[in-house]
Amino acid sequence: MKKLIPLILILAVATGVGVWWFKARERKHAQGLELYGNVDIREVNLGFRVSGLVSEVLRDEGDAVKKGEILARLDDEPYRRELEQSRGQVASLKARLEMLEAGNRPQEIAQAEALVNEREVTLTNAETVFARQQELLRSKAVAIQDRDDAEARYREAKARLNSAREQLNLLKAGFRSEEIAQAKADLVRAEATVASAALRVSDTVLKAPADGVVLTRAQEPGGMVQPGATILTVCLERPVWVRAYINEPELGKIHPGSKVEVFTDTQPSKAYHGQVGYISPRAEFTPKNVETTELRTSLVYRLRIVIEDPEEGLRQGMPVTIKVLESSPVAASRKSAAITSPQNRMAALLRDAATRPALP
Fold this sequence. Notes:
By secondary structure, this protein is of the alpha+beta class. The chain has 3 domains: 30-41 and 237-341, Efflux pump adaptor protein, beta barrel domain (Elongation Factor Tu (Ef-tu), domain 3, Beta Barrel); 45-76 and 203-232, CATH 2.40.50.100; 83-197, Orthogonal Bundle (Helix Hairpins), CATH 1.10.287. Helix content is 48%, strand content 23%. It has 8 helices and 12 strands. It has helices at 4-31, 77-102, 106-138, 144-173, 177-202, 293-296, 329-340, 342-355; strands spanning 34-47, 52-57, 64-65, 70-74, 205-207, 212-217, 224-225, 230-247, 259-264, 272-279, 300-307, 319-324. A 6-stranded antiparallel barrel has the order 1-8-11-10-9-12. It has a 4-stranded antiparallel sheet with strand order 5-4-2-7, with no helix packed on it. A hairpin with a 7-residue loop joins β9 and β10. α1 (4-31) packs antiparallel against α7 (329-340), α2 (77-102) runs antiparallel to α5 (177-202) and α3 (106-138) packs antiparallel against α4. It is elongated. The two termini are 37 Å apart. Mean pLDDT is 80; it is low at 286-292, 330-350 and 353-360.
């Protein structure tokens, strides 16, 4: 038992040394991974959503712009007149809706009531005349035609009174609910027209979507442009990316989120910091659908590296060198597991001893 204790201690020390050596070699290998790529700065072509005459362009090539800054304008006179016309239509429909909701005026109702009273008197008089003519006809004092005329006047007065009463009830009831609903719908449609006209007026002003630098000035004042025509091209300050490629055998050494340092040829000693933001799932420049072992090593995958501290020193298309600061955690965990497993400890130590150069 006492003889086993030194052996166990020796194995434990050897295992610790082997783990440390493999991790150190992994870190050194990861730090030695270099990639090459180019700076990829986003550009945006700015234009108007409406057509018109360019009245002014306020920025030139090379000018720095800030988010929300006005860059160009169109002549907005036609769109302002359209807006005023739409506002007038809204005012007219709004007044009509208020009239329908308020109902008829009291004066109109009073006029209808007076008309009813007038025709009631007329009906009473016609009824009296008709009754008198009826009595006179029995005594042969009037002609039958006179009695018939009195009856016709009576019936007419009665019908005219009913018409006046119905007109009075209609004025008191007000307008139909369907008419009010239609007036509301017309008003909503007119208000939407006003909003569209106001949007077209605002679209005659071109603003910067983000901070950047003007690359191209494509139009000058006085020119007619169609919707979507490019007026200015702006290079955005952020985001700044680096497009790089990695060979298929080295793909397992990086992962999204891996920290990197980026160096340019103009300032080799200045390091820009970033991290891997995207790894393409598809290989590029693939010669065939099925590759041999030799051809598989030529496959490359596109990377997108996001620069965390961009500045003017990084220009569009500039070649850069990328140094990876950390390796893939998956690969590291696999190697660590292989080293620390009881079955592979001795095998790893023997391989290390065989590959190490002999001491002189």
